[in-house]
Amino acid sequence: MKQSQLFTKTRREPPSDEVAKNAQLLIRAGYIHKEMAGVYAYLPLGLRVLNNVSRIIREEMNAIGGIEIQMTALQDKEKWVKSNRWDDAVVDVWFKTALKNDAQLGLGFTHDEALIDILKNYIASYKDLPRYIYQIQTKFRNELRSKSGIMRGREFLMKDLYSFTRTQQELDAFYEKVQRAYHNVFRRCGIGDSTYLTFSSGGTFSQFSHEFQTISDAGEDVIYVDQAKKIAVNKDVLNDEVLKGLGLTRSNLVEKKAIEVGNIFRQGTRFTDALGVYYADEKGERQSLYMGGYGIGVSRVVGTIVEVLADDKGLVWPKEVAPFAVHLIAIAGKSGEKVSAAADNLYADLEKAGVEVLYDDRDVSAGGKLADADLIGIPTRIVISEKTLEKDSVEVKERASGETKMVALSVAIDHFA
Ligand code: ATP
Ligand code: MG
């Protein structure tokens, strides 16, 4: 893509109404637009990143047997009354609305009830099980605070996976598979080293649930990390008995602020019983259906990557989530036409070779282009200028490490393809 075609522009100054680093940088670099507090639009660069994170999640969910669907944002009150989650006193984040005939609707803040209601039609016997169903969809939550930029949206993208199994053991086995898949997701998103499997409160069907917490001062949670064992305990459940049960020693734990990027939960038979969905076993006897729920805040992951990896010059994207692989920059100087022609050729060849490239063809000063490239944070920057052309070369710089080298034009395509 040619940068002159992007309608977004970078800004020198952070917006005055944002305190979160992720929102400040993403707005400055032209990735997102703030519609109102906690509500953000994704501009071309931002959407590419969001889609890349979604793709990684999709690949990892499919690899453990996940089947993708898309449920509805509009939710029927009746289903949520059955599970006792309609009342604002029970769930305080509902956005509610009504039809013209006054029938009450809500905007989905999660989709457990909705999916169970769908499955009523499709799960009858043990032969229909197990099922692992997920979606990547916008959730709506009337969050009290929204100071964390895209990490706490009132409208945000979530991946929610639900497992339906015959037994608790089958649920436990899948639950462990999801843990491994989540580690893969966060590693591929470049935050694996700072993301910890964290024991947290478990509700009715197991002693614990688990969160995936990424260490960051921008986090709203407090966790206690055992660095050697690579696990952590949420402050909410930290006590002597819990530590003993987990074989952890208080003096080995370090208190850290952290961002909850995902969580996994064994609901057991709570919702399936409440909504009256059962299956018939081999003997034809009615059995309860075991459920697990597994969330990842897709847009929160994007914000977390920014919080963890950005530096004082701007964004730094890991390869798999970056909006483009390569940022090609032409610095025209005196022999403008020669440089532009060489850059145009390289751009065409890179595109032909399937390299995702953003080509800065704008009529902007060299300093402006280089500063924008740092701010936008594409992993590899290629500069082509009068100086590099004297050596029939381009200058290649890695955004994350700052490493720079010259690559001959004759081998540039092979080098990047
Ligand atoms: P939190 O404690 O941060 O409010 P939660 O416990 O309400 O999170 P879930 O309902 O389990 O979270 O949602 C699953 C995942 O969705 C979370 O792990 C988090 O990554 C993400 N998430 C939750 N709320 C938001 C939000 N307001 N904006 C962006 N992502 C969110
Ligand atoms: Mg919440």
Can you lay out the helices and strands and say which pair or pack?
Blueprint lengths: L20 H8 L3 E5 L2 E4 L1 H20 L3 E2 L5 E3 H6 L12 E4 L5 E4 L4 H8 L11 E10 L14 E11 L2 H21 L6 E7 L6 E8 L5 E6 L4 E4 L5 H7 L7 E15 L1 H5 L3 E3 L5 E3 L1 E8 H12 L16 E6 L4 H17 L4 E4 L5 H11 L3 E6 H5 L2 E6 L5 E5 H8 L1
Parallel strand pairs: 3-7, 9-12, 17-18, 17-19
Antiparallel strand pairs: 1-2, 4-6, 5-6, 7-8, 8-16, 9-10, 10-13, 11-12, 11-13, 13-16, 14-15, 19-20, 20-21
Helix pairs in contact: 1-8, 2-5, 2-8
Bound molecules: adenosine-5'-triphosphate and magnesium ion (MG).
Write a structural description:
The chain is an alpha+beta fold and 417 residues long. It folds into 2 domains: 3-309, Bira Bifunctional Protein, Domain 2 (BirA Bifunctional Protein, domain 2), CATH 3.30.930; 326-416, 3-Layer(aba) Sandwich (Rossmann fold). 31% of the residues lie in helices and 30% in strands. The protein contains 12 helices and 21 strands. The protein has helices at 21-28, 44-63, 77-82, 112-119, 168-188, 240-246, 270-274, 298-309, 336-352, 366-376, 386-390, 409-416; strands at residues 32-36, 39-42, 67-68, 74-76, 95-98, 104-107, 131-140, 155-165, 195-201, 208-215, 221-226, 231-234, 254-268, 278-280, 286-288, 290-297, 326-331, 357-360, 380-385, 393-398, 404-408. The protein has a 5-stranded mixed β-barrel with strand order 9-10-13-11-12. The chain has a 5-stranded mixed β-sheet with strand order 18-17-19-20-21, with helices on both faces. The chain has a 3-stranded antiparallel β-sheet with strand order 4-6-5. The protein is elongated and about 80 Å long. The chain starts with 20 loop residues before the first helix and ends with a helix. 40% of the residues are buried. Bound molecules: adenosine-5'-triphosphate and magnesium ion. The site of adenosine-5'-triphosphate (ATP) has 17 residues, from β8, β13, β16 and α8.
